[in-house]
Write a structure and sequence with these properties.
This protein is of the alpha/beta class and 330 residues long. The protein has two domains: 136 residues, Rossmann fold; 132 residues, Glucose-6-phosphate isomerase like protein, domain 1 (Rossmann fold, 3-Layer(aba) Sandwich), CATH 3.40.50. It is 44% helix and 15% strand. It contains twelve helices and nine strands. The strands form two sheets. It has a five-stranded parallel β-sheet, with helices on both faces. A four-stranded parallel β-sheet has the order 7-6-8-9. α8 crosses α11 and α9 packs parallel to α11.
């Protein structure tokens, strides 16, 4: 199947997609000796970051099944409840994100248990000055493709702190991610999304997966894409399909263990939508929770990349986002 642009083999982003399984294993090793300072006195977990550095927090909420509240902070200010009994993960791949640096300082002032995940930058310098635990991850990767490095260390810290049990989920997931199935399936999906506006729907449990698909289509394929979740969308957004104003492709991402009433919502909505807009269903599958989440994400990452190539678009550059970051520094 022909792809636009330069040869795929010469594309730097391709290497990171093909080595994502290795990234997950390496990320676990980087965090193997880190743990919360006082794990028995943690009431809540906060993940602070923006954009692709906040997404690991959303994924953590989808993954974890523990009696601790998980809150994702996407701004300068941290929630008022943050204090000594909070475990705060501060994530900034570049280490230069001003919103995250402000949130880091606020977390320290509240005496929270803080662990930073970064490749360095200003945040890394502040960690050294303040003697804050930091898990240093490799530089030189497009931020959106460093998801394993930003997410897996949190799981290892929680496991090392006795707050979750990973068993061999990381190893199982890495093995699954090696499969050529993702690229092959993505070729089909990219054809369906060509010159379309993707509308991505999931259950509320897996809304983080829908968000990841949106982010990658936005940044890699430079394509507008939007997300929604069941059952909420059936009380508002569904009405927009009576007279859809655009060339849409609906993706419904579902999983067998979704609540039965949520699955009923999905079926009813699909029957309505397909009368006006083509619907593609994508099943979340895997032999453990981490594999289910990362397999579906990996398929979306490949789809966005191949769509970019078919459109003749540079999949690496994110010109508008980069220009905004530069403007904020002035």
């Amino acid at each position: 199947m022909s792809l636009g642009g330069n040869n795929m083999e010469q594309d730097s982003i391709l290497k990171h997609l093909e080595q994502f399984h290795s990234q997950c294993i390496h990320a676990a090793k980087l965090a193997s000796e880190y743990y919360a300072k006082d794990p028995e006195n943690i009431d809540n977990i906060v993940v602070t970051g923006v954009g692709n550095s906040a997404l690991p927090g959303d994924l953590l909420k989808s993954y974890l099944n523990i009696k601790k509240a998980v809150y994702v902070n996407r701004g300068y200010r941290i929630p008022e409840f943050v204090g000594p009994r909070s475990l705060v993960f501060v994530i900034s791949y570049s280490g230069e994100t001003e919103e995250t640096i402000d949130a880091y300082r606020s977390s320290l002032s509240r005496k929270a248990q803080v662990i930073c995940i970064t490749s360095g930058g200003k945040l890394g310098q502040l960690c050294r000055i303040n003697n804050t635990e930091q898990i240093l991850i490799p530089k030189g990767i497009p931020q959106r493709l460093a998801l394993g490095y930003m997410f897996i260390p949190m799981l290892k810290v929680l496991e090392n702190s006795g707050l979750c049990d990973l068993s061999d989920e990381i190893e199982k997931t890495a093995k699954t991610l090696k499969s050529p199935m993702f690229k092959n399936k993505a070729l089909e999906l990219a054809d369906r999304l060509l010159k379309k506006i993707p509308l991505i729907y999931t259950s509320s449990k897996f809304k983080s997966i829908g968000l990841r698909w949106k982010y990658m289509l936005n940044e890699t394929a430079k394509t507008l894409a939007f997300t929604g979740e069941f059952p909420d969308m059936n009380y508002n957004e569904i009405n927009g399909f009576s007279q859809p104003q655009g060339d849409f492709e609906v993706l419904i991402i579902n999983e067998d263990t979704d609540y039965s009433k949520v699955k009923k919502h999905m079926k009813i909505a699909k029957d309505i939508i397909k009368k006006k807009v083509r619907v593609t269903e994508i099943a979340i599958t895997g032999d453990c929770q981490l594999s289910k989440i990362f397999s579906t994400i990996h398929l979306g990452d490949w789809t966005a990349y191949i769509l970019a190539r078919k459109l003749g678009i540079d999949p690496v550059k994110a010109e508008y986002s980069d220009s905004i970051r530069e403007s904020l520094k002035k």
